[in-house]
Design goal:
mainly alpha
């Protein structure tokens, strides 16, 4: 058995029969069951990982797999998607065309979108045959490929896809991250290769030498330590050596170096230049680094290939094993290596290569003060920022290290570093970097730019007060350019949106908007409109908020989700649905926020199961990109949904998650939402005192109606206050609801909630009847059902049984239609008190397993997938996100206890139509 660059012996694997058997069993299992699997082959360099990988791939091809195989490279692990490129572009039937792949890697700035497109291509292929995606040397995978590999196995777990990885053992390395991300969602096998046994090494010797190894050879092979690559190198040298009675034949030093020393000087020099360029390199690039015309190095190339050091695949030259490259590389002195890497970077750029191709050499060869290197790092960071912001942040951090403190360039580089760190979610690092630069006493212009650059990090860290102070301090110093002044003014507006004096905040926002338009600065424009939209929503001025967010999305379509939610606050669900459709079809760079808007839309229309799926998917996507924006509010709503549906266990889990999220982001809005959720739980547990206390805590955070996520729940809060005999609190809430309705006379929900609140506080059935009538003209069935239930109870208390039955029946049926089984059961109990209970609603608790456990949307998707639809085609038919389909499908597989689409299809075909 040879090393990882391909065996010198062709007699097959030696000593790895058990490991190969385990992998072949996984190959067979994936093909048989139609569900995915993952295997990791790990071990030290030269231990045989690539040979075992190749043998497994050969088995898969014979079994009818479509195979895509790639190899990561140490010096190319910065280029986005470079590691996965070969997996999807090459092979017997490439998954993607080169043009499509280039479009994915270059023209889209959303990692989640990119992964979904890759998943769709693999899923399409897996619909006709099992697929194997293999990646060798995974320890050197680029960040975007690593991100994709952490998502794709779980995303495609229901399709016959085998993920086969090979790499060195590295605790917490890329391979471990990928396996951990897939943990529990699909079968995973880790094959750890140790030293070969003495018997296997002896078989290798027989294969290579063509005769039985004598005792002298066996003693020499002990020095290989069971490493097959080293053993074969030693055996090859021994086979090719001249006969000798010496204990160690001439030419057999520890294998590789002996072979290298036999090469011509030009060949060794050529190999050294290639080693600097990486394991795979271009012949012309190596010739350029040698300072020689390519034609003069053909003899050197032929000798290197003939000696088994290089392979030539027709496009590029490849060191046959990375240990060979390392052996060449370490013989170059460290100072020479640094200079060569710097020269390699210069040569790649001169040849028209993208800056990111030169970056690995810059990182090894640049020295402080190298402004050309800094420029390349900045350009590369700008290129990769949309898809790998973490890498962009690392590149800019290095660029900043290369700029001495005295250089004027330092502050421009620092500003870009701050922005990249913020985009990567490394807000604390961004703030620390900015403060270090500010401590160097930059000129006033740069001072303002740095403070403006820090605005995003401070906002993300919920430090609105500090953001305001810094913006005001920078504005007070003056000296900044109009564009920077406009940004600082807009950032101050954003900070003021969290303030109590929203009138003053609005005035500041109008001034900021004028300054942004006058300066012609797009960033200032979007910040000003965003701040004005937040101010209007916090003030409860829904129509004005819609105007602001519509203007914002016109400037930048990424803010379309904010416009959608603003339409929903106006009760214009038709407009919201049109915009959701447009955003889903066109794609958006903020898919998690779009799912937040989708969840709000479904919740408002009483589609509780769909809303829960949207919020769950939103949280998953936010976690994938490490940007938890709406997770606390999402968990609050999911907990409330679970309470309505009677799933107390799920409700408690969501409450615990919301509390945990609040610890990480303790802003006033999150605090108010979690305290209100605690009130709902206390009320459900019969602890009225605790419920009233939590409502009071919400009020201390600010007027209840300021927190827009709570506005539709005012009736619940007043009911709790009245149950706790806190008439004063109930009156305050009712007054806030009336004021909110006054600000929004065109919004039926606002007017209906105000009438509902007034009816509860005054015990006035006429006001409640008016509430139900107004809410009938609005789109929110759950709000209407809550008002009808309170009206029915009030009629029942007044012994107006006929009217009570009508109102309660309507409330029960509406809750039942929405899937709010617990709410429906409570109304049913009130109905039974009238003596006219009628039919009882469905069981409070939906089954947890089986077809009856599936929601309506889950059944639709199960039937579509059983018919052969992919996630993408099912999403297109249902006009939802493929991410939402994936969430529903995960639930379907769990509830039906199936592991593949084949199993799902077999099960669904036995069921009657719904």
């Amino acid at each position: 058995m040879g090393g990882e660059g391909g065996p010198l012996s062709r007699s097959g694997l030696r000593g790895r029969e058990d490991e190969l058997g385990e992998l072949e069993a996984l190959v067979a299992s994936v093909a048989r069951t139609g569900s995915s699997g993952l295997a990791l082959i790990q071990g030290e360099p030269g231990i045989g990982k690539t040979t075992l990988l190749a043998a497994t791939i050969s088995t898969a091809r014979e079994a009818g797999y479509s195979v895509g195989i790639g190899k990561a490279d140490e010096l190319h692990r910065i280029v986005p998607l470079s590691s996965l490129a070969a997996c999807v572009l090459h092979g017997d039937r490439p998954l993607l065309s080169a043009d499509t792949f280039a479009d994915l890697a270059r023209n889209h700035d959303q990692r989640i979108w990119l992964v979904e497109r890759l998943a769709g291509a693999i899923e399409d292929r897996a619909g006709g045959m099992p697929v194997l995606i293999g990646l060798d040397d995974v320890q050197w995978a680029d960040p975007l490929s690593r991100f994709a590999l952490q998502q794709l196995p779980a995303r495609l777990r229901t399709s016959p896809v085998l993920w086969l990885l090979a790499g060195r053992r590295e605790p917490a390395g890329p391979a471990e991250e990928i396996v951990a991300a897939a943990d529990g969602s699909l079968p995973a096998v880790t094959v750890t290769l140790g030293p070969l046994s003495g018997a296997a090494i002896a078989q290798l010797a027989d294969d290579t030498l063509g005769t039985a190894a004598d005792e002298r050879v066996r003693d020499l092979l002990d020095g290989a330590g069971g490493n097959p690559f080293l053993a074969v190198e030693m055996l090859t040298a021994l086979r090719d050596a001249e006969p000798s009675d010496d204990p160690v034949p001439r030419g057999l030093v520890v294998g590789v170096r002996g072979r290298l020393r036999s090469l011509q000087a030009d060949t060794l020099r050529f190999l050294q230049m290639g080693a600097v360029l990486g394991r795979r390199f271009d012949f012309h690039d190596a010739a350029a680094l040698c300072g020689r015309p390519a034609a003069t190095l053909i003899t050197a190339l032929d000798e290197a290939v003939g000696a088994g050091i290089l392979d030539d695949d027709g496009d590029r030259l490849v060191f046959r094993h990375d240990l060979l490259r390392q052996a060449v590389y370490v013989d170059i002195s460290p100072s020479a290596r640094k200079a060569l890497h710097r020269e390699a970077a210069r040569g790649l750029v001169a040849a028209g290569r993208p800056p990111v191709d030169a970056v690995p050499h810059i990182l090894r060869g640049a020295t402080p003060g190298d402004e050309e290197a800094v420029s390349l790092l900045r350009r590369a960071a700008e290129d990769v920022l949309p898809v790998t912001p973490g890498l962009a942040a690392d590149l800019m951090t290095r660029a900043l290290e290369l700029v001495p403190s005295a250089r004027p360039l330092r502050y421009a580089v620092g500003e870009q570093t701050i922005l990249c760190l913020t985009r990567a979610g490394r807000n604390g690092e961004a703030l620390a970097t900015g403060d270090r630069l500010l401590a160097e006493r930059p000129p006033l212009e740069e001072f303002g730019r740095l403070q403006a650059g820090l605005g995003g990090a401070l906002w993300n860290m919920d430090r609105a007060g500090e953001l305001r102070r810094r913006a005001e301090a920078a504005l007070a110093l003056a000296g900044a350019a109009p564009r920077i002044t406009a940004r600082l003014t807009a950032l101050r507006t954003l900070a003021l949106s969290r303030d109590h004096d929203l009138v003053a905040a609005r005035e500041a926002g109008e001034a900021a908007l004028r300054a942004a338009v006058q300066a012609g600065d797009r960033d200032a424009h979007t910040l000003a409109l965003s701040g004005l939209g937040e101010i209007a929503q916090n003030a409860g001025e829904n129509a004005l908020a819609l105007d602001r967010f519509a203007a914002l999305s016109a400037v930048d379509s990424a803010f379309l989700p904010e416009e959608i939610v603003a339409h929903l606050h106006m009760d214009d669900f038709d407009a919201g649905a049109r915009l959701l459709l447009r955003a889903t079809e066109a794609g958006t760079t903020r898919q998690a926020m779009l799912l937040w808007a989708q969840g709000q839309h479904d919740l408002g229309l009483g589609r509780l199961d769909d809303a829960d799926a949207a919020f769950a998917t939103m949280e998953r996507l936010e976690n994938e990109v490490h940007a938890p924006v709406q997770q606390v509010n999402g968990r609050v709503i999911r907990s409330w949904i679970a309470l309505l549906c009677g799933d107390r266990d799920a409700a408690r889990l969501h409450l615990a998650a919301a509390r945990e999220g609040l610890e990480a982001k303790p802003n006033p809005g999150n605090t108010a939402a979690v305290r209100f959720l605690e009130a709902l739980h206390a009320d459900a547990d019969g602890d009225t005192g605790l419920a009233v206390d939590r409502i009071r805590q919400v009020e201390r955070e600010g007027p209840f109606m300021r927190w827009r996520v709570l506005r539709d729940w005012t009736g619940h809060a007043i009911r709790m206050a009245l149950s706790g005999a806190d008439g004063e609190l109930a009156g305050e809430l009712a007054a806030q609801a009336a004021a909110h309705a006054g600000r929004n006379p065109a919004v039926p929900t606002a007017r209906g909630v105000a009438a509902h609140a007034l009816g509860l506080v005054r015990n006035d059935p006429t006001a409640l009847e008016r509430s139900v009538e107004v809410l009938d003209s609005g789109p929110r069935p759950l709000v209407r059902a809550a008002a009808a239930a309170d009206l029915g109870r009030m009629f029942l208390a007044a012994d107006r049984r006929r009217q009570a039955v009508t109102a309660l029946t309507r409330a029960r049926d509406t809750f039942t239609a929405a899937g709010a089984r617990a709410a429906a059961a409570r109304v049913q109990r009130d109905l039974e008190k009238t003596g006219a209970g009628g039919r009882r609603p469905a069981n409070v608790q939906r089954p947890v397993q089986g077809w009856e456990a599936l929601t309506a949307s889950e059944r639709k998707i199960a039937r579509l997938v059983a018919q052969g639809h992919t996630n993408r085609s099912a999403a297109d038919l249902l006009v939802v996100s493929p991410h939402t389909v994936n969430t529903h499908l995960t639930s379907v597989f769990r509830k039906l206890s199936v592991n593949s689409r084949v199993q799902l299809a077999n099960l669904v075909t036995t069921l009657p139509e719904d």
